[in-house]
Amino acid sequence: MPWYFPWSESIKKRACRYLLQHYLGDFLKEKLDLDQLTVDLYNGKGTVTNILLDVWALNEMLSNAGVALELVDGFISSISVSVPWKALLNDSCELEIHGLNLTFVQKQKITGGNLFDSTYSWSSMSMTTSIQLAQECLRQESNANSNVDTGQFEGLEAFAQTIESVLARVRLTFIDTKIRFENVPVDASTGIGIELNIDRIDYWDLSHEEVAQDTSRQHSVYEPVAVAIKSFQIAGLVMIMDEFPKHCRTRLREALTEEEKIQQESFLRGGSNSNPDLLPRVRFLSSCGKQTVKMKFKQNDALPGPKIDLKMNID
Predict the structure, then answer these.
(1) Most buried residue, 1, 104, 172, 256, by CB count within 10 Å?
(2) pTM of the full predicted structure?
(3) In whole angstroms, how far apart are CA 174 and each of 10, 27, 97, 134, 210?
(4) 103: how many CB neighbours lie within 10 A of its CB?
(5) Complete DSSP assignment for the chain
(6) Cβ neighbours of residue 153 under 8 Å, at least 6 residues apart?
(7) pLDDT of res. 14
(8) Which residues 6+ apart lie within 8 Å of 170 measured at CB?
(9) Is the separation of the CB atoms in 162 and 156 below 8 Å?
């Protein structure tokens, strides 16, 4: 199916801006500079750098899930987006996130929440129907141009199918990811940190393959696919433990002075500890292979089988 040319260039640009903000916006402290990003995107690639995560929003998600962890700092070095405009419906759009850094501490008070339901809810973030996305894109066009009437777009379903085809082929890659857990006991002068460093994480959606194989009925753009299939692959994993003085524990980046930011980043990069009484950084786990996880989420309760099916393969 072609990218229908009767639609204006403005609609195409707004579609890209809207989709990026729709899938990333809830996790970012500030909105992406999508106007500048769009200019680069139309040439094939766009990059934004030094992105703060919305710690409060992410902590609310963790709290609703009943997770006994609290995010104290979140940062992304850069986000790059590649769009194959000349083969949009055949090649994959690629989203690369470089230098994701997350630091968690133990949460003292755990509120009610269901991790299973929350996991299912997070997975549905990309399960918004394509017809809804198409309507939102056209509504934004209508708001920007009072002369545009969304009711005049007879090809709404075709536009939605185009969006669905593009989203089904999005590949998400995390490079140089660091996840750190810190614990400073009450009245203690030092704390213990555990770092999980991952060279590469690849994520892609296989739901479109399931739809293509199911010839028993035609899939409607007005509803999510019956079974959503997600695949993750992790390569290059290292776990490190260290001891640190209480005053060196990670704090919210935006609350630090420039000097404190430099000191914190130096420590998190593995800078030497001047206190000989503290344990040095110790690597206690390393994996050079690949771990692949495939998850199936049933979105139609009428179908037989479990709600979530999980398979893992280690190479």
Answers:
(1) 104
(2) 0.75
(3) 30, 15, 5, 28, 25
(4) 25
(5) ----TTS-HHHHHHHHHHHHHHHHGGGBSS---HHHHHHHHTTTEEEEEEEEB-HHHHHHHHHHTT-SEEEEEEEEEEEEEE--GGGTTTSPPEEEEEEEEEEEEE-SSPPP--HHHHHHHHHGGG-S-HHHHHHHHHHHHHHH-TT--GGG-TTHHHHHHHHHHHHTT-EEEEEEEEEEEEE--TT-SEEEEEEEEEEEEEEEE-HHHHHHH--SSPPPTTS--SEEEEEEEEEEEEEEEEEEEGGGS---GGGS-HHHHHHHHHHHTTPPPS-TTSPPPEEEEEEEEEEEEEEEEE--TTSSS-SEEEEEEE-
(6) 7, 138, 159
(7) 62
(8) 92, 93, 94, 95, 204, 205
(9) no
Q: What sign for the dihedral angle of Cα 255, 252, 233, 297?
A: negative
Q: CB 80: neighbour CB atoms within 10 A?
A: 17
